[in-house]
Each structure stands twice: as C-alpha cells, then as structure tokens.
Amino acid sequence: MKHLLSINDLSKESALDLLNLAVEMQQVNTRDIKKLPALTGRTVANLFFEDSTRTRISFELAARRLSADVINFSAKGSSVSKGESLKDTVQTLEAMGVEALIVRHNHSGAVNTIANSDWSKAVVINAGDGTHEHPTQALLDSLTIRQRVSGLENKGDLSGLRILIVGDILHSRVARSNLLLLRKLGATAAVSAPPTLIPSTIANYCDEVYFDLDEALSNKFDVVMMLRIQSERMNSAFMPNSSEYSFGWGLGDTRFSKLSKDTLIMHPGPMNRGLEISSKAADSEQSAILDQVTNGVAVRMAVLYKLLAQEKKND
Questions:
Q1: β-bridge mates for residue 47, sequence order
Q2: CATH assignment of 135-289?
Q3: Is the pLDDT of residue 148 over 60?
Q4: Could you tell me which CATH class the domain 7-133+293-314 is placed in?
Q5: 225 contacts 165 by C-beta, under 8 angstroms
Q6: At what angle do helices 12-28 and 173-184 cross, to 10 degrees?
Q7: Can you tell me the distance from the alpha carbon of 31 to that of 111, in angstroms, rounded to the nearest whole number?
Q8: All structural domains of the chain with their residue ranges
C-alpha cells in the first residue's frame, strides 16, 4: 500500500493491523517524551484546501511525534489564490523535498488525481476529499468504538456490534468511510436521516435505513454517531430549517434520556450544539467525542508509520 485514499485500499486484515499499531502508538503518547525516531529526516506536508482544526493539527502532531519535518500549507494566502494549479502546487512542494502529502480538498477525487498522476511521486494520504471519503476518521472511530464498547484488551474486529449513523449522510465523507469500514470489520451499520439527505446508492453501503430517528433508536444500537449538518455543501432544498431538523433528527435531551446507559455517543466534529446534539449528550459519560480526538493522533501516527517508515525499510 503506497497511499491511503479510501477504506477500499484496506483489507480487513490491514485495517486491523493499523488499529493494533495505533494502540501501540497510544503508549508513545502517554510517555514523558512523546517521540519516536521512525521518520527522522522525512518531510511531510499538510496540503489543506479546506479549513480544518482537528484533522490538520492531529496529522501535524502525528508526524512530529514520529520525528518528521512538517510543512503546513493552506490554500488561503498561497499562490493557489493567484490561480496556481494543483499540479504546480504539488510539484513545487516535492521540489522542496516533500515526500508525503496529507491532502484535504473540496473536490471529490482530488487525492486520486495526485496519487495516480505521472507528475507526483509523493505518498498521498486522504484527509477528506469533497463528499467522497475521510479514511483516517473512520479508522479512529473504529478504534474508539473497539476500546469503549468492546474493551481496551480487545484487538479483534467489531463483529456483533450495531452502529447507527445519523444526519447528513448525503454530503458526509465521514459517513461513507465509516460505513465501508464498519461493515468490513463485521459490524451492522445503519443510517437514519431525512430522505433528502440519504443518497440513492445507500443500499450499497449499509445494512439498515431509517427515515424516523425515534424508530431507529428503539432498535437498540450499541453506538449512535451524530453527523454535522454540512451547510456549506447544501442549499435550503435539503431541509426546511434548522429548527425542524433539530426536532426530527437531533439528539436532544429527551431522546438522549431514553437511550440505554450503555449506548456510546459519537460525533466527528465540529459539533453544532443544540442542532445535531445537545450539550447534555455531548458532555455525558456516554460520550466518546474527546476520545475520538485523542485517538486521531495515534491512528494517524500508525498510518504515517506504515506508509513511510516501512517503505523506507523495504527500500
């Protein structure tokens, strides 16, 4: 595996291998000196054409903890705003010695364009492309589920677990990657959303579809993952207004109080508190939202190690 562009790049075995390696990386993150020399002398660039807090900082921390040199590139204030093409941007960075590109782009398939081109030799990691995929988010979510639901000692898959993803499925690259990985790891994956926010191809990605959230929640899921409403990718035709969406599809205090105390609550962030999820649910002991953020660093360390450190060994 030279790149990580999609969950489809991973077999079940390679996905589990990454999750198990991430568990080992977590031990590094608890030490006084949070460093490994694995990527000493390697140069990694965060190439972000969309705004990000969690993903960009998480990848930067992951690379630095593996002793890589890190360049943070933002399209705002760069030559991209002057009309520079994706090809020229990538070639410029590679000419400076960048060996790996962590790419977030607003266009689906941009990472594939770079990885499959004849003008780039860099390792490419997808940090979210349009409405397509966000594979490292799915990996960190599965690690969080495995640790919080199945126990820290479990290094196996997610067989037997029932997981519900709620919200803007249509525009969510997080949902797509999660559905692919959860089923690959043996879980039952379901979605719940208004009909306007469910893609017509959803049957290819999940086991159950609910157009009524209360009906879905009555079916006893181990994990409920709420998604952010991606207003930047939609117009008013997808839902009447935020109040109606919150009433029908938000995890408010009333819905949260009816859940089993064992139900794990997740959200990939950033959250719109009071719209998709109430503060009571987000800040509860059942919430794994901060665990997801913490696990993001370990998972991204594992991905960088696999793609760069092992590549160096093979060379």
A1: 73, 103
A2: 3.40.50.1370
A3: yes
A4: alpha beta
A5: yes
A6: 110
A7: 34
A8: 7-133+293-314, 135-289
Residue-wise pLDDT for 259-297, tens only, equals: 999 999 999 999 999 999 999 999 999 999 999 999 999
Q: Which residues contact 261 (CB under 8 A, 6 or more apart)?
A: 286
Tokens of 300: 């991204």
Q: How many other CB atoms are found less than 10 A from the CB of residue 140?
A: 29
Q: Which residues of 8-37 are buried (b: 16+ CB within 10 A; e: fewer)?
A: ebbeeeebbebbebbbebbebeeeeeeebe
Give tens-digit pLDDT for 18-38. 999 999 999 999 999 999 999
Residue environment code for 281-299, b if the CB has 16+ CB neighbours within 10 A, otherwise e: bbeeebbbbebbbebbbbb
pLDDT in tens, 85-123: 999 999 999 999 999 999 999 999 999 999 999 999 999
- Per the rule left: phi > 0, alpha: psi between -120 and 50, beta: everything else, 46 is beta
Whole-prediction pTM: 0.94
Residues contacting 190, CB < 8 A, separation 6+: 162, 163, 164, 165, 206, 207, 208, 209, 210, 216, 219, 221
Task: Please tell me the distance from the alpha carbon of residue 242 to that of residue 145, in angstroms, as a whole number.
Answer: 29
CA distance 103 to 70: 13
The answer to whether 192 touches 211, Cβ cutoff 8 Å, is yes
Overall average pLDDT of the 35-57 stretch: 95
Chain centroid to Cα 266, Å, comes to: 12
Q: What share of the chain is helix, strand, coil (3-state, %, to 5)?
A: 45, 15, 40
7-133+293-314 shares its CATH topology with 135-289: yes
- 232-240 average pLDDT score: 59
- Cβ(8)–Cβ(132) below 8 Å: no
63, 304 Cβ separation under 8 angstroms: yes
Q: Is the pLDDT of residue 216 over 80?
A: yes
- Residue 282's nearest CA partner among 264, 258, 294, 296 is 264
